[in-house]
Amino acid sequence: MTKEEAIEKAKRDLATRLGIDESQVAEQSVSDADFPDMALGAAASGEMSGQMITKGWKIQLDGSGTTYEYRADKTQLRLFKFKGKNYKI
Amino acid sequence: MNRNNFLPHVALALVLILVAAFAGQIRRWQTQWRHHVRIMPAADKRHEPINSLEAAPYETHVFSAPEVLVKFKTGVTEDAISTITQRLHDRVDDEIESVPGLDAIDDLDDANAESVAAEYRALPQVEYAEAVFEISADDAPVTPRDPRFAEQWALFNDGSRGGIKGADISAMHAWHVTTGSDNVVVAVLDSGVDYTHSDLASNIWVRPANVNPYEDKELGTIQDVQGYNAVENNADPMDDNGHGTHCAGIIGAEGGNDIGIAGVNWKVQIMPLKFMNAGGYGTTKDAVEAINYVIDRKKAGVNVRVISASWGSTQKSRALEDVIRKAYEADILFVAASGNATTNNDRTPHYPSSYNVPNVVSVAALDRNDQLASFSNYGVKSVAIAAPGVDILSTWLGDEYEEKSGTSMATPVVAGVAALIVAENPKISVDELRKKLLASVDPLASLKGKIVTGGRINAAKAVGAN
Fold this sequence. Notes:
Chain A is α+β, with helices and mostly antiparallel strands.
């Protein structure tokens, strides 16, 4: 998965979760990041991950007046602390 | 000369020449004998060389004839030195050019070296004289012939790349005592292991013929050959991520094989286990299944003594804790990463490293300056020990090598040292093993009040090396 593909996938996911049109999701920022583990610091329920620093992208999107954080690398996309929970997309 | 005496004189001359020639040869033989090279396997006699390459570091000890090193005072000429040595029936074996006036002197009578040195010390022309003494390899560090060893600062930190010289686990001194044993099995519970990697292949565990295939009442029979894949419940633990292969190399990349790197153990049996997928994460259920496999193999007679667990999360699983306790009851140490969230595990536990089970050793990460890594978790009550975990070079997929950082990398360093201890102490119990590990640290100011032992693991101390 490329960075661009991760951004598009994240936009689609957020639009679905918020029940809004994808065009109403705005890209606030995208930056390279070192995440603390292989679940990108966003382990979902029941997950254990390798404790290796992992390079990826932090994707911040605005939707319905709130900023949401997605985390991605070339193999995965995760939603970080959405209503208190992490999700693997 | 009387013609009648000519032939007897010629014969006598020939005899004298032959006697002189023979005497000269005897002197040469004596000299050669005194200059003999002694091959000194000065290592602990218990240590059997793994192969010819491993043995090589011990074969460099030359002990030659000169009995004394004499430093003549400034101004004493070569002629004067020659006169002195001839008078004492000695000879200058070699001038040490870098130190004017320093000569290695051979006593032609082969007298006691201390006596010869005393003779020279009594001379007014001499600044000092000392007996040549043998330097054995007993305390010498062992350097492996793995071409990228110089990049393995965790094992030998020479101070390059901004590091502090000596901020390492003293592996080279430990290796003088043991480089590991293929009787010791270490389970790498991870994303699997690339068991075909050329620096790992010879150290991968293979189920012995006298151990039956793994049988699970519900999962069925697994014809395990070299480990277990809990993700797909099959016998192929091939790594499709790289993380497990990296950890395996830290524990036991084959040492002295002229390939890549050296593991903490040059020789060990790595049991590959896969419970994390290609993304590097997995479920508690699959982790439990894999540990269950290890315990079963132990009960079947496999000498698996250590589980290396470079993973975790803040989520507590009672089932995971229970199965780790079962591993303890099976005399298996469980070495676990403390986590990379820069948090205090005393307040925010990280599992499995925070389980209060007697076989768990929680590991923090250090950088090459002996500082707690910027990402490392800590906990003066809950994190036991620290080990290098930043920019660690190890094996990777595709027969490659990569530098990675994390408590994931520090964990197999400690697991590897545990395996060295077991290699030296095959009967050691898990309680004694854990105690010995925790007693084998170099205290660091940076860790005081941060972790239980306040120190970095020292492999040499762990195996009782000088």
